[in-house]
Please model this.
Amino acid sequence: MAPVVADMSISLDGFVADASDNVEQVFGWYFSGSVSVPTANPALAFQVSEASAAELRDALANVGALVAGRRTFDLAGGWGGHHPMGVPVVVVTHSVPDGWPRDGSSISFVTDGVERALEQAKAAAGDKLVGVASPSIIQQSLNAGLLDAIRLSVVPVLLGEGVPFFGGLENPPVRLTDPRVTQGDGVTHLYYELRR
Model:
């Protein structure tokens, strides 16, 4: 069964975006290095340090599907119909946006909750990982006991306010293993598994 891994870039004080939904401060590391990492989108390649490149190559090779929330989908403009990772994306939403689903797109929609979205993503991922890439969907998955691991890319910046990564935990404390740590340039990658 496909493991489910939360994956986000965050500020040191735990925000995934500033108060205006701007992600430049926490996503800048994707374009600040000398090593090119191509994506499934021929027009997009990441430019990162060698250490971060290894992390990205691992994700690109091992993620088989993504689950995201409607807000992330809207802010990303629906990724133009295809996420840069080149895998199916299941969007959790209360209502399917106008004009969707689209022929030839790898994006589908689930209106009956995060559990159903993860089931659909696991079926699409096969033996690969399912990445969860929206704070609210990560929180819902964590509260429902559906996450296996958390991968954080922590950027050394304090935003002070914005969109929090962790909030609304229903059953704290949530115990994690000691992290696997990879130091990049301008970012530290942390990988934790959840203790059951």
